[in-house]
Amino acid sequence: MRYLLDENLAPAYRKQLRRAAPEIEVWIVGDPGAPSRGTLDPAILSWCEANDFVLVTNNRKSMPGHLHAHLASGHHAPGILVFNPAMAMGALIDKLVLIASASDAGEYQDLILYLPLT
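RE: above sequence
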């Protein structure tokens, strides 16, 4: 599993995720090779599709609409994980590690999931 963290997430999320599961590839918007900071959400979805990264974001307002438009235009997305900003960092890291370790390739394609999973 490869995660692209939204630019609104603190770099500490990547650091903690890498510490918990070094085998998971984690990029952040703004990293070299990733979409630059300020890139619009539709372009981020296109980049995730082209590079096979699951997007991790806290954007609950507009991301569902962007995903719908992306899919309606014939594209796909490896998946979007939208977390509740009230989640503690450790809880989110635990969920991301669990999802990565228990998932098959393509399992979240074209889906948007809200964390915590209930």
